[in-house]
């Protein structure tokens, strides 16, 4: 199909390839061994305590202060993984890992990452590896349909999707695009400091339960933490849309410039779902960019019965969720869509001579460098493609349903146990609870669970009270792991 | 060393692990096959044309419009890599790839990436996987020594190193830290727009030849492209330090606030080296943050005989270079150091309840989430560790020397060829040239090279004239590949 031209092969030449060429490394042999090591690791992961038991400095104390001058035998290097690395890992793939968020991975996705590293191509421009760009556009369109997201996020319309490393970075892109839309692209000109055409500060809104990345992104973008308004939440910890509308009106009256609302579809602490549709009405009335951060929970929308979490997202300007959290794609893989790619690209595009090329000039291709902060980008679409095709959409739905069912079982047990108080119960894969007797008793549960080696949970605070979070999403978590966790929680072992 | 406690094993439970668990995928078998595929690909890479010959849309036309509902057999998925992906790749690892920058990889590094994906751990906090943080600190200290960088970049002092995805992101961190230092941490408070304590705009400086990421980062950070001063260059295309000093003085006189200078150690177009020591004197006199962007060329400092490129970097506030460009570590791996980590961390740290932990509160550990834009981070130190140990510092020096020698050979041939004009000749691995007869003739050379399938070069402009760039750095490039390129350049084939 794309054969080499009929030219003679390049002639042999006396100057040899140096010993540093990849041929000098027995990639086949050591690669097979590494695959076997990973297979053994994942199969036997339950023999490790979920949380490591090392003191700060332990890892560095095992390592020589200076690098080797001569290369070392591979066997010695590989054995150091067992000696130095393994004892100092939190085992995020362990079925007893219930902390933070699932960072679940899968065999097909790991091989996608391996292939990406092996090919070693750059996808900064379409022309620097067309497959890298086109496969990404294609699987992001697939994902758009799989999650029931609006048609206008598809690449066939004015919008489109792109893979980012994390939701933090996706939200930063949304912040910058929103800021530029609001200021008439001041960032490409005078910058915020010189944008004196209209008085008053740009202000952004998120709920008091919003993720820390929103404040961080606003700092980075020069908006400032003081210009992030934390909107009060309702009893279910979701943003109060009336309070939001009222705050926007007050800010407008005070001469400020509301420009962005970040709605959480699944807050980090309790998976509260902000009322996107109601927020969108206020955003539309006052010209705010609406970004939906569905980093973890959004993946639940793979299942039609959970798709209500996406109510109103068709009114959003941008949206992100993380296949690297709950869709078996190893970190990093955040899926980010915008309704209007032209604004994003205008905000982020700088085209120097050395990147000019014929394909870009036709206007017919996507250059994803203009959709993200970095210039370089690796071939992350492979792992998403492999994962979707291996499991199929039904397999991925099964995964979500299994985790939600396990959470439901646990939730019922918590509700029936008089010493425990369920906190903000939802219908998905996160279970939050505290002890009836207060923070010390809750902390004792956390310590018992995490000290056991069999499970790990993390915590948050709700209404000032310590809360234990059980996030169910490890790839191989099964009923017996939740049972064991339950025994630890209630102190039966 | 870290055994499991003496508790009974978790009992078996009737509820089975679902088919989506990784066990359902024969990771061992398919992993071995993928390793073999990559080994075959890299061994036989010369049979592919370096630049692909596909039209926009070709890849997507090979793919079904919707994802499969049921999972597909792995063999079908894997065979689509040959059918759909391979014909549409630029082969960056091909020894005839001389474009942009080398994105060179190596077997040990690919296995480091594989292991990182297989472990699937998160390094956002020390506590979320201590090995992920400590190994990174350790190899960054190693790198500091390997490159002859100042002792105060070491983690043992007030500075430290961190792995970023790209130099763009590292420079964004430098921009934000510099902005915050200059404004008394306004970003954590009122933001740029509200920073009315001192009049006049924050202004940044880089040479007219600086990388596009600097303007992009200044846009993102709200400084604005209009507040980037492009300092004129000298005949060797390096920044004119007198012009810089004079521009800073003029800006100060006009009431502006110079806050940042980005010096290039190796500009993208021609590898010009800005006079860091002279720039540092002006920065010190006026309180500017000095960031050194040595993305590609910095790696040359592995060899003592090239270490003059680092003259003056001990006076810089931050520095970055990319092992993923010229040190056999697959993308992404940028090495970024700061002289004063406290400023960087203060600029980027937001600590919500759900990330609080005992180790962080001791103040004795590094939490790298505060050293970068994203929160999540994967275990990138593994590939750097594997690469340094497998090749040893001498092996990596050999690689640099081999590439520099090949460039020297080519440079001599260009100099001896009357139809060609060497452009900004340096002593390292980049050779720039143009045709005596002007841009059309130069373009004809580029078209001939890139149309051959045997080699790929990219271009730039210098003094308004089209210039062909030969960047020598592919892992397996040898004399015969440069010979073949030379034959193509001079039109002998």
Would you tell me the overall average pLDDT of chain A? 93
Secondary-structure class of chain A: alpha/beta
Shape of chain A: globular
CATH homolog superfamily of the largest domain in chain A: Type I PLP-dependent aspartate aminotransferase-like (Major domain)
State which percent range the strand residues of chain A make up: 5-15%
Q: Helix count of chain A, per DSSP?
A: 15
- Biggest sheet layout of chain A: 7 strands, mixed
Helicity range of the residues of chain A?
Answer: 25-40%
Count of extended strands of chain A: 12
- Using the coordinates above, name the CATH class of the largest domain in chain A: Alpha Beta
Largest interface between protein chains, with number of residues from each side: A-B, 194 and 194 residues
Describe this structure as you would to a colleague.
The structure is a homodimer. With about 500 residues, chain A is α/β, with parallel strands linked by helices. Chain A folds into two domains: about 120-375, Aspartate Aminotransferase, domain 2 (3-Layer(aba) Sandwich); about 385-490, Alpha-Beta Complex (Aspartate Aminotransferase, domain 1), CATH 3.90.1150. Helices cover about 40% and strands about 15% of the residues of chain A. A seven-stranded mixed beta sheet of chain A has the order 2-8-7-6-5-3-4, with helices on both faces. In chain A, strands 1-11-12-10-9 form a five-stranded mixed beta sheet. In chain A, helix 6 crosses helix 7 (about 210-220) and helix 13 crosses helix 15 (about 480-490). Chain A is globular and about 60 Å long. The interface between A and B is large, with 194 and 194 residues.
């Amino acid at each position: 199909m794309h054969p080499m031209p009929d030219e003679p092969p390049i002639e042999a030449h006396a100057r040899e390839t140096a010993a540093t060429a990849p041929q000098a490394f027995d990639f086949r042999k050591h690669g097979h061994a590494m695959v076997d090591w990973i297979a053994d690791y994942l199969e036997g992961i339950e023999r490790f305590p979920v949380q490591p038991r090392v003191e700060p400095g332990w890892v560095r104390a095992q390592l020589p202060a200076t690098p080797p001058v001569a290369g070392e035998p591979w066997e010695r290097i590989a054995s150091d993984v067992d000696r130095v690395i393994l004892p100092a890992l939190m085992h995020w793939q362990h079925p007893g890992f219930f902390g933070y968020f699932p960072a679940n991975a899968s065999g097909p996705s790991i091989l996608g990452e391996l292939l990406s590293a092996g090919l070693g191509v750059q996808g900064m421009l379409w022309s620097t590896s067309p497959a890298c760009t086109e496969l990404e556009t294609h699987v992001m369109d697939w994902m758009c349909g799989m999650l029931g997201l609006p048609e206008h996020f598809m690449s066939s319309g004015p919008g489109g999707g792109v893979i980012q490393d994390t939701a933090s970075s996706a939200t930063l892109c949304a912040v910058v695009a929103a800021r530029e839309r609001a200021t008439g692209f001041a960032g490409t000109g005078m910058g915020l400091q010189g944008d004196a055409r209209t008085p008053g500060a740009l202000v952004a809104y998120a709920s008091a339960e919003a993720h820390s990345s929103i404040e961080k992104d606003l700092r980075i973008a020069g908006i400032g933490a003081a210009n992030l308004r934390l909107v009060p939440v309702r009893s279910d910890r979701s943003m109060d849309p009336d309070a939001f509308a009222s705050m926007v009106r007050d800010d407008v009256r005070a001469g400020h410039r509301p420009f962005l609302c970040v709605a959480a579809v699944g807050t980090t602490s309790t998976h509260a779902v902000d009322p996107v549709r109601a927020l969108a009405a206020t955003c539309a009335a006052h010209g705010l960019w609406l970004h939906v951060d569905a980093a973890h929970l959004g993946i639940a929308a793979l299942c039609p019965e959970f798709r209500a979490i996406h109510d109103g997202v068709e009114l959003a300007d941008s949206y992100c969720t993380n296949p690297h959290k709950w869709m078996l794609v190893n970190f990093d893989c955040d899926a980010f869509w915008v309704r209007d790619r032209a604004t994003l690209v205008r905000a982020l595009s700088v085209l120097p001579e050395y990147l000019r090329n014929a394909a870009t000039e036709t206007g017919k291709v996507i250059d994803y460098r203009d959709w993200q902060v970095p210039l370089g980008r690796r071939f992350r679409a492979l792992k998403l493609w492999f994962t979707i095709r291996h499991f199929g959409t039904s397999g991925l739905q099964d995964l979500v349903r299994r985790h939600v069912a396990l959470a439901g079982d646990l939730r019922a047990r918590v509700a029936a146990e008089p010493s425990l108080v369920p906190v903000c119960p939802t219908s998905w894969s996160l279970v939050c609870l505290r002890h009836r007797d207060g923070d010390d008793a809750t902390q004792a549960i956390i310590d018992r669970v995490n000290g056991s080696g069999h499970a790990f949970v993390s915590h948050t605070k709700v209404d000032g009270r310590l809360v234990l979070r059980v996030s169910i999403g490890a790839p191989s978590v099964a009923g017996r792991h939740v049972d064991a966790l339950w025994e630890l929680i209630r102190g039966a072992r």
